[in-house]
Amino acid sequence: MSNEQVRLIDAVDVYLDESPERPESPESAGAPLLIGALRASFGAGRQLGGSSFEYTAEYLASPSRYAISPDLPLVAGKQFSGEDAALFGAFADATPDDWGTGLIDAAFTRERGAGWPLALGEFDHLVQQNDLTRMGALRFREPGTSGTSAAGASTPGTSTAAPEWLTAAQHTAANPNDAQRIAEAVARFEEYEATDEDMEILGYAGSSLGGARPKATIQDADGGLWLLKLPSNRDRRIDTEAWEATALDLAAAAGLRVPRHRLIRLDEHKSSLLIERFDRRFDQRSQSRVGYMSAMTAMQLGPQQSATYEDLADTIDQVTLESSVEDLREMFGRVALTVLVGNVDDHWKNHGFTRERTGVDAGAATSWRLSPAFDVNPTRPGSRVRSRRINSHDDPSNRDVRLLIEGRDAYRLTQRDAAEVLARVTRAVGTWRETARKYNIGPGEIEYMAPAFNEAQFEYAERFVIEHLAVTSPRVPPAVPPVPAIPRAGQPLADRKRRFPELFAAGEGASSSPDASTDLEY
Predict the structure, then answer these.
(1) What segment(s) does the record annotate as region Disordered (predicted)?
(2) What is the pTM of this model?
(3) Does some domain include residue 510?
(4) Quick check: 227 and 215 in contact, CB under 8 A?
């Protein structure tokens, strides 16, 4: 980064950019909508003490307006952050977590020198990340750079030339062929041995998304964005990304919504996982950003507050007005899968909602719906427990699927409905060994991970299915319904062409799964 690339600012104009843009003629897109101004208040140094946000009158009068998060209702005047969080939920969701902030901090330190007295804070991490790859549909400009400003007068010396999105001139996304190169840079960064070249590729590829694990965003030839999840030096005995690919395949086999994904083998023991970004919509005609809200924001939870999956079900009922029945059924299946595969890293930022059009027309209204499932990772018992409780009676260190079954009313399910969902989940999870072998996970590693797949919980779910569906065993799979298509601009793309043929072709550097085409097609 150069000195021009890191600028410490205290306020931004906030835009909502959900209009489709045609790659061949960007000027055809609807202009991003200036929706308000965000101002930061700092404590010691750059540590964020609080923030304020004010919607523009134009946005409040717009027929397409919606509250960008529950803690920012559509009212006139300044709104101030509460005691539990210095940043409103919508902006916290657009801010990178441990991995991304670590990269931004490292780049800043390299530029300014270790003796620089100020450490970057949460507001700086929000505005310094890559505009191209930032999560969701919010974009930022410095006040006064666009001719009109929601934040008032510009800072002295600010240019009034053609406006630029913050960081847009500094960053691109990585190339899909860079997977091995990025993985090597990650390994050196984790050992505090990163070179300037390493920091350059990690800085533009890896700083925009949440989570603590290494990751990067890559861009395909059509402009589509994909998340590249990478191995970590902390993985030790297991191929973490191969196990996540296994879990996503099991979810898809259970009829649950997951993004398209593909495993890329880096060497005999390590892989990276390529996952299509669901906060972007791309096809051959247009591309657009998609609004995103985490479950943590939707439930208005502070850092020290807890909630249960039944609380999330209540929130789904309130938030997803157009799809609540479908989304509640989906969530029931996801909770069951989470228990049966030992996914303990299911914190509330690992669930979310996307802003979807309610019709096929580009001008149709939008509403929230449950996002595709993500960050599903089988974990052996005894790992650091961060799991969410099913209900208030659940033990998060020993979750019980029977509590999910007993609480099915929270998901608007009858006994038979619940049994049908569990039948699909148990049939899918019952194939976990075969699915793992498909990704070339060795027999020793499979046995090492076997305790993650809780046999007792599986039998509880299986018994309920047998009792209520009059089947002999759900482990004998009937025809499983296809995974529902994730629409692009309101329309399913069943005939969508594949990208990255060099990565998606079977052979070296890619899974040779006989089911690979199923993984990649809607």
Answers:
(1) 141-160
(2) 0.83
(3) yes
(4) yes
